[in-house]
From TrEMBL:
UniProt xrefs under Gene3D superfamilies: 3.20.70.20
InterPro entries (alphabetical): RdRp_reductase_class-2, RNR_2_N, RNR_lg_C, RNR_NrdJ/NrdZ, TSCPD_dom
Cofactor: adenosylcob(III)alamin
EC number in record: 1.17.4.1
Signal peptide: none
Species classification: Bacteria, Bacillati, Actinomycetota, Actinomycetes, Pseudonocardiales
GO biological process, one term: DNA biosynthetic process
Stored CDD domains: RNR_II_dimer
Annotated source species: Amycolatopsis bartoniae
Annotated Ribonucleotide reductase class II vitamin B12-dependent N-terminal domain residues: 43-133
Name of the molecule in the record: Vitamin B12-dependent ribonucleotide reductase
Gene designation: nrdA
PANTHER family, per database record: RIBONUCLEOSIDE-DIPHOSPHATE REDUCTASE, VITAMIN B12-DEPENDENT RIBONUCLEOTIDE REDUCTASE
A Pfam cross-reference name: Ribonuc_red_lgC
Family indicated by similarity: Belongs to the ribonucleoside diphosphate reductase class-2 family.
């Protein structure tokens, strides 16, 4: 695609002749649809918890190479028309044509193309790229473009609120309209005066935190998009606001409330019946810090909190202590995140038109108040050639097509408010990004947390944004620069030079990086030269979004900037059913690392059984890091995520949607370190999530319901726990035990229809503190069991606890215990839990462990003394692999089975499967629903 505009001296009249579009992916005389084989499929999507059908459409048409998952998601989410009616779309051709033809028609009307033939080539190229999953527009495009609905193309919005009641009530209204349309919004509340300031009437102001309650209730009431998910929103407060300490503690205090209510028997899971009584749960909270504050933290100095109306300091606080409170709250409940105001505004292309004060809910879009951004993401793995090199030139051409289409969309787009529409048309903010970075790095033999991986990611990101701005400058010469450019020309050019300088500073490690950076360097140079003459068409070009639903549409292994979630994957099959597979990126990576086919086959087989590469046959330990993932045996360290963000941030116009996952063992100091390093490394925003820091454990809902099916055959109301008392006469057993020399007794009573109902532990002398504590502990466990808490939940919590007495036991099945509680609950598991549940927890009898060893020694053949049924059910065998896969309904659940523990993630409210992280949001690979705004 080339520019055919002629330009004279500065200020001279331009001959705007439009773009001459050259074929890249397509063949002249052959329509893209005629190049692929199509097939008819039936889409029937069910809720696995109750078997109900969520969606059904039969006879839909898709290319044979599209996965079942992508087919299901596109059919259920993006096809328009009433289900069952003749007007309902039933082919991917109809969907792509509806969108692409609308773009091309608008481009023609607004003078983007030199001739009609160029418009046709552009149409074919876009069609080919979408058909072959090279890129995708964000969801609102598929929802709205080419329909009778409003042509809303943006997923991300930033609002504004001032210090008066009219503005505050208007904020509630505007958020509601955006949520209703299926998108998310963010805003900064720092203009609202604090609760420490006076009103003009003489009373005391309520403060922004109080007004957050009303907005939170509104967001919780309006389901985003009308049905699929709750609203997504971001609330930001500046660190110098006098109410900042209250803001920081807001969600942490609510998390304490959740714990108390949960312990009292209320259903406080993420989708529980009683969670609605808790406030502030519908927003992501972030504190906006500036360099002044961070330097005060670094030096241990004081920092002033300023009145909103006068700007005077009304209170001085210890900066380090305030920063610690942020880390403490984030450690407790994952909020607040942090946004680095000085860095954000230092890279602002339009400072003369206003500061950047807020972001969208996922933190990737940052620009002026009352603005929006439409997104599109490229599938990076599509540009990896068979020889392992990245096709930089093809990537440049793809970026040109995508960024041109994105800019055209602003010409015909509708917006939820007049103010947002006005700002967006004046500044034309775009958000091109990518998916599958994690898969690309693995496929090329790079560890995610490595200098080589970061160099490759930085070079690709620089090339993407450099090409986007170069094309934007060319478009400015054809259809004009954005309206706000003249006022911000100097600042915009300064930011372009900063990007180019960062590109020059990339430390290349491999021939791939060198080749890509060289192309990027030329793109930045050309873009700056053309922009100096024409200006730029867009105030912003790129962001890194979560790519949740569209990532599934493109059959991506990884979303946005994220590493691979896991090495094993849950795959749906044509005609129904599912299977566990090892990610296709793994054999490609092994090939790139020099392994032979026989070695690759053995390693893949090992991964399919274990879910990780540790001790895989023939795999060299120095290559383990290439296969490190977000979860699993070798999960990437938190600082590794931060370093990757820092590597690509200088080449992103906006910011990056990403949550840094931290283990449950992480400390408050670890969170402080991550937040501080984010500032030092030049990030714009950062959020963390510590495993198990929130009470809502969605997977436990399913487990509790399974346990109740065993322990409570009568029908109960799920949201109101009912105690099932033991009968007067019940079966029981008493066990004497020794742990580390300490002797004790365990009495366990059962229901007549089976199922543990009470325990009593005798340890220590009667009347001693230890004996009293064990009596109280036994009573609390017994009451919990009678209220339906599954035994496996207690086993998972108390096994492996470490404290004295510990050591050798006199139990042949449990030879060593790390504490008395570790021994007791592992013994209870052996006595009362079925094998399948114990296998997930990693608890086996001595006989079962012997059978496993013999099974692995004898392969398929087993000695007569070993029970064949037991062998078939061992976790090492293929049969258990199938059982585990059938018990899972998503990759996240599959990894839970491999890990033997439940990872934090919400259940999808549409289909009930466990979601997996996508940036700072979650996405369901079963039906495509997301918890955020992408």
């Amino acid at each position: 695609m080339t520019e055919t505009v002629t330009t004279g001296s500065k200020g001279a009249k331009r001959d705007k002749r439009g773009l001459t579009v050259e074929r890249v992916f397509t063949t002249e005389g052959v329509h893209p649809y005629d190049e692929v084989k199509w097939e008819q499929r039936d889409v029937v999507m069910t809720n696995w918890r109750d078997g109900s059908v969520n969606f059904e459409q039969r006879g839909v048409e898709f290319p044979e190479f599209w996965s079942v998952n992508a087919t299901n998601i596109v059919t259920s989410k993006y096809f328009r028309g009433a289900v069952g009616s003749p007007q309902r779309e039933n082919s991917l051709k109809q969907l792509i044509d509806r969108v692409v033809k609308t773009y091309v028609r608008a481009g023609t009307e607004h003078g983007y193309f030199a001739t009609g033939a160029d418009a046709e080539v552009f149409e074919h190229e876009l069609t080919w790229m979408l058909l072959h999953q090279v890129f995708s527009f964000n969801s609102p495009v598929w929802f709205n473009v080419g329909t009778t609905s409003k042509q809303q193309v943006s997923a991300c919005f930033i609002l504004a609120v001032d210090d008066n009641m009219d503005s505050i009530l208007n904020w509630y209204k505007e958020e509601g309209l955006i949520f209703k349309g299926g998108s998310g919004a963010g805003l900064n509340l720092s203009r609202i005066r604090s609760s420490k300031e006076l009103l003009s009437s003489g009373g005391t102001a309520s403060g922004p935190v109080s007004f957050m309650r009303g907005a939170d209730a509104s967001a919780g009431t309006i389901k985003s998009g009308g049905a699929t998910r709750r609203a997504a929103k971001m609330v930001v407060l500046d660190v110098d606001h006098p109410d900042i300490e209250e803001f920081i503690a807001t969600k942490a205090r609510e998390e304490e409330k959740i714990k108390v209510l949960r312990d009292a028997g209320f259903d406080m899971d993420l989708s529980g019946a009683d969670i609605h009584s808790v406030q502030y749960q519908n927003a992501n909270n972030s504190v906006r810090v500036n360099d002044e504050f961070m330097r005060a933290v670094e030096s241990g100095g004081e920092f002033g909190l300023r009145a909103r109306l006068t700007g005077e300091v009304i209170e001085s606080v210890d900066a380090k202590k305030l920063f610690r409170s942020m880390a403490q709250a984030a450690w407790e409940c994952a909020d607040p995140g942090i946004q680095y105001d000085s860095t954000i505004n230092d890279w602002h292309t339009c400072p003369e038109s206003g500061r950047i004060t807020a972001s969208n809910p996922c933190s990737e879009y940052m620009h002026l108040d009352n603005s929006s951004c439409n997104l599109a993401s490229l599938n990076l793995l599509k540009f990896l050639k068979d020889d392992g090199s990245f096709d930089a030139q093809l990537f440049v051409k793809a970026v040109e097509f995508v960024i041109t289409a994105m800019d055209i969309s602003i010409c015909f787009a509708d917006f939820p408010t007049e103010a947002i529409g006005d700002t967006t048309r004046k500044f034309r903010q775009l958000g091109i990004g990518y998916a599958n970075l994690g898969a690309l790095l693995m496929a090329t033999g790079h560890a995610y947390d490595s200098d080589g991986g970061r160099a490759l990611a930085a070079a690709i990101t620089s090339l993407m944004t450099g090409t986007s701005y170069r094309r934007s400058a060319e478009l400015a010469g054809i259809v004009g620069a954005y309206e706000g450019y003249t006022r911000n020309a100097e600042a915009h050019q300064r930011v372009m030079r900063k990007h180019a300088a960062a590109n020059d500073a990339i430390r290349t490690m491999h021939s791939n990086d060198v080749a890509i950076r060289d192309v990027a360097t030329r793109e930045w140079q050309r873009g700056i030269e053309i922009g100096a003459r024409n200006g730029w068409r867009n105030a912003q070009a790129s962001v890194l979004a979560p790519t949740g639903t569209i990532g599934f549409m493109m059959d991506c292994d990884t979303t946005g900037i994220e590493p691979d979630f896991s090495l094993v994957k849950f795959k749906k099959l044509v005609g129904g059913g599912s299977m566990q597979i090892v990610n296709q990126t793994v054999p490609r990576a092994l090939k790139a690392l020099g392994y032979q086919d026989e070695q690759i086959e053995a390693i893949v087989e090992y991964i399919s059984q274990h879910g990780h590469v540790v001790d895989a046959p023939g795999l060299r330990p120095e290559h383990y890091e290439v296969f490190d993932c977000a979860v699993g045996e070798r999960s990437i360290a938190p600082i590794g995520h931060v370093r990757m963000m820092a590597a690509v941030q200088p080449f992103i116009s906006g910011a990056i949607s990403k949550t840094v996952n931290m283990p449950e063992s992480a400390t408050v100091e670890d969170v402080e370190h991550i937040y501080f390093e984010g500032w030092k490394l030049g990030l714009k925003a950062l959020a963390i999530y510590r495993d198990n820091c929130k009470v809502g454990q969605p997977l436990s809902t399913a487990k509790k319901s399974e346990a109740k099916a065993v322990a409570e055959p009568e029908k109960v109301v799920e949201y109101k726990p009912v105690r099932k008392r033991l009968p007067k006469k019940r079966p029981s057993q008493t066990l004497s035990f020794t742990v580390g020399g300490a002797e004790g007794y365990l009495h366990a009573g059962s229901y007549p229809d089976d199922g543990l109902g009470e325990i009593f532990v005798k340890l220590g002398k009667q009347g001693s503190t230890l004996a009293g504590v064990m009596d109280a502990f036994s009573m609390s466990i017994s009451v919990g069991l009678q209220y339906g808490i599954p035994l496996e939940f207690y086993v998972s919590k108390f096994s492996n606890l470490r404290f004295e007495p510990a050591g050798m036991t006199d139990d042949p099945d449990i030879r060593i215990a790390t504490s008395v509680l570790d021994y007791l609950f592992r013994r209870l598991a052996l006595d009362y839990l079925p094998y399948e549940k114990r296998a997930q927890l990693g608890i086996f009898t001595a006989e079962e462990r012997t059978a496993q060893v013999e099974a692995s020694d004898y392969g398929a053949a087993a000695p007569d003394s070993v029970d064949l049924e037991e062998l078939r059910s061992t976790v090492e065998s293929k049969q258990q692999e199938v059982v585990e896969t059938q018990a899972a309904h998503s990759t996240a659940e599959l990894m839970d089975l491999h890990l033997g523990k439940a990872n934090d993630a919400p259940l999808c409210m549409t289909c009930g499967t466990k979601m997996r992280p996508a940036g700072s949001c979650y996405a369901c690979e079963g039906c495509g629903a997301t918890s955020g705004c992408s």
